[in-house]
Each structure stands twice: as structure tokens, then as C-alpha cells.
Amino acid sequence: MTSLEIIEQSERKIVVKLKNVPLQYANALRRICLTGIPVFAIDDVVIIENSSVLADEGIAHRLAMIPMKTDMTRFIEPSNCDCHSEVGCSRCRVMLMIDSGAADTTRTITSAELTSEDDVVKPVSDKIPIIELAPGQKVKLEAYARLGRGTEHAKWNSATVSVLTETGNPHDHILTIESTGALTPGQIVAGGVEELAKRLDVFKQVISTLG
After folding, report:
1. Who has greater pLDDT, 152 or 203?
2. Which pairs with CB-CB distance under 8 Å and at least 24 residues apart come from 5-10?
3. Beta bridge partners of 174
4. What residues contact residue 19 under an 8 Å CB cut-off, 6+ apart?
């Protein structure tokens, strides 16, 4: 009988044993957990003011790579949203802002100053450095985060580590997942199982039309 047993679980890591699961399905689940679960990442940045030494593109890149906490219950992927807008709407995007103001001393702007219009969707840590400002320099910007998948870009990876280990039994496998913090490890596994089931159903439907 196919089953999934949790061997170890913490805030950022989960280890599960997949019993009576063929290797190809176990590996498919591993890949989906790594790059196939939708999570939030900053995808568009509007620079209003930037007097720092770092180019606008550099700031945008650093913002894009900040892992964002994700709520999949209230938001949908832009491709599935009825707004059909490049800008997005409240169902498919979240706006965040930075307004550093000018300081008298050199200081580092961190993710703590990235304020979100949503209580959940925000950086997983407030200690991630973004840019260092010299006296008199300032940055003001708007950043827009949306759901995406790691298959499109690494900034949407839901996990940093996903390892499949053999157990000696050809149908038993150990799956280790370390989350970026966007989702809990348990949410990643559950989402991976659900996504794999959807893809198998779609594949079966395609095969049935060939008969």
C-alpha cells in the first residue's frame, strides 16, 4: 500500500519516507516540490527615486531574489486571473514599498524597510541587505510581487534543497526538503502531491484521446 511517513520535521525542513512508490513518481514529486509549487516573488519594480551608487536594475535584481512568505488561499497565478492585466489586481499581485528618506550617516537598507500592503506576503526575514546608502542618498520605489513557479525563474523556487535517497527497497524512498521560508515544508509536500496528481490526470486525459 502506498503511503507517506514523516520522519523529521522542523520550521524549514521536512524528511518523509515514500513507501511503495515507483522511483519515477518519487523523482517527479521531488522536482515539483523544488520548482512546481507557486510562491510569491517580486517581479516588477518601479524606481521613483534612486540617488545611490547601485543602478536601478541592480536594486530590482536584489529585490527579486528575496524569498517572500506566501498565502495560496487568497491569491491566484496571473495566468489564471480574470483581470487579464499586465499590472495585475488584488487577487494576483501584492505591492510593496521602500521609502528610505535621506540619512546623515551611512546605513544599510534591509528587507525590514520593505513594507507590504498585505499582512502575510512579505520577506521571510527582515535582515536581508538590499543596498547601502551614503549620507544624503535615498531610495524610493514600488515593487510588485506575484505568484510564479521555479520552472520559469529560480526566484520562484519553493525549496532550496530537495534530495531523494534510496533505502535499499526499490519502492521506498526518503525525500528531504528544505524550504526557502515562502511556505512551510509541510505545505510544499502537500502541494507537490496535489500538483503531481493534477498532472497525472491531465496526462491520462491526453492518452485517452489517442485511443
Report:
1. 152
2. 7/174, 9/185, 9/186, 10/185
3. 17, 165
4. 1, 2, 3, 4, 5, 171, 172
Spatial separation of the C-alpha atoms in residues 105 and 197, rounded to whole Å: 55
Q: Which helix (H) or strand (E) holds 198?
A: helix 185-210
Helix (H) or strand (E) run with residue 30 in it: helix 23-35
CA–CA distance, 66 with 122 (Å, rounded to integer) = 9
pLDDT tens digits for 38-86? 999 999 999 999 999 999 999 999 999 999 999 989 999 999 999 988 7
Residues in the chain: 211
Return the residue matching grid coordinates 520577506: 123
- The residue among 70, 148, 150 whose CA lies nearest residue 116 is 70
Closest CA to 179 of 39, 21, 64: 39
Closest by CA position to 139, among listed 182, 99, 103, 88 = 99
- The pLDDT > 70 percentage for the chain reads 100
- Looking at residue 28, what is its pLDDT? 94
Please check the confidence at residue 137 and state whether its pLDDT lies above 90.
Answer: yes
Contact, 56 vs 140, CB < 8 A?
no
Residue type for position 210: L
Domains of the chain: 3-37+158-210 (3.30.1360.10), 39-149 (2.170.120.12)
- C-alpha span between 137 and 176 (Å, rounded): 44
- List the one residue out of 33, 37, 36 whose CA is nearest residue 4: 33
